[in-house]
Design brief:
The protein has about 260 residues and is mainly β. The chain has three domains: about 70 residues, SH3 Domains (SH3 type barrels, Roll); about 50 residues; about 120 residues, Alpha-Beta Complex (endopeptidase fold (from Nostoc punctiforme)). It has four helices and 23 strands. The strands form six sheets. It has a six-stranded antiparallel beta barrel. A five-stranded antiparallel sheet has the order 6-5-4-1-7. The two termini are about 35 Å apart. About 40% of the residues are buried.
Length: about 260
């Protein structure tokens, strides 16, 4: 079985119960494969990044295989919500649905898109129709709207993000497809041997003195990083790691810098 999310956000959990850990989230118009059925729950694999987990069955709309294949094709040329939060209005019933950054808009043209035959209207200023060029100016322009979004384990939307959810969504605006977790993202691209050679859009990975990748941020320049730790913020970066001025010490220790 295959399916699609027609909700703004669908929590994807580690187990088939409401109180289970949220491991990631599924965005509106995102596709999945239904791997297993359980009373009230589906175990799914997300088409976008391969993450697996359990979703409330009533929040997943099953599709016919031919519908799924057609939608896969439409997603390849889809526009994308570029702001942390935008609102679309259904032409079917006039209801408003909030959409988070990274949400793909199929069959988009001049403020209108279509999902499974239903038309929606959206403010065109909230949408990009092609990937942004990755440079310092565009990066700063994009991420300034994400500042102060609070940290949420497994989150990747304007109401809460974790570190790798933040990097995954932001880099998608620049046409970079990343896995979901920091340790997986650390296998992408190629290593930059010294931080002084880093440039805007490179990813920096950190540990907590145990050698295991546990955190990721985006380089603004060799002395600044934007990341989600407590909230999305910009902090000082050097070869040791992230210096947190609020506590007067290093909060994360640099392991590697990679260019995607």
């Amino acid at each position: 079985m295959v399916g699609i999310s027609l909700h703004s956000i669908v929590p994807v959990r580690a187990e088939a119960r409401e109180g289970a850990e949220q491991s990631t989230q599924m965005l509106f118009n995102e596709l999945c494969t239904i791997l297993e059925e359980h009373p009230r729950w589906y175990r799914i694999r997300l088409e976008s990044d391969g993450q697996e987990g359990w979703a409330d069955a009533k929040m997943i709309c099953p599709m016919k295989p031919e519908e799924y294949a057609q939608h896969q094709e439409a997603l390849k040329t889809a526009a994308m919500v570029a702001m942390p939060m935008a609102y679309a209005v259904s032409e079917n019933n006039g209801q408003t649905i909030p959409l988070t950054a990274g949400t793909k808009l199929t069959n988009y043209k001049e403020g209108r898109f279509e999902v499974l035959g239903v038309g929606f209207r959206i403010d065109p200023s909230m949408v990009i129709t092609k990937s942004l060029d990755l440079n310092e100016q565009n990066l700063l322009q994009a991420v300034r709207f994400f500042l102060n979004i609070p940290y949420l384990w497994g989150g990747k939307n304007a109401m809460g993000m974790d570190c790798s959810g933040f990097t995954q969504i932001v880099m998608s605006l620049f046409g970079k497809k990343l896995p979901r977790n920091a340790s997986e993202q650390a296998t992408c691209g190629h290593e930059i041997t010294t931080l002084s050679k880093a440039k805007a859009g490179d990813l920096v990975f950190f540990d907590h003195e145990d050698g295991k990748i546990s955190h990721v941020g985006i380089v603004i320049d060799p002395e600044r990083v934007i990341h989600c730790s407590g909230r999305v913020k910009v902090e000082k970066l050097d070869e040791t790691g992230i210096f947190n001025a609020e506590i007067g010490s290093y909060s994360h220790h640099l392991v590697t810098t990679r260019r995607i």
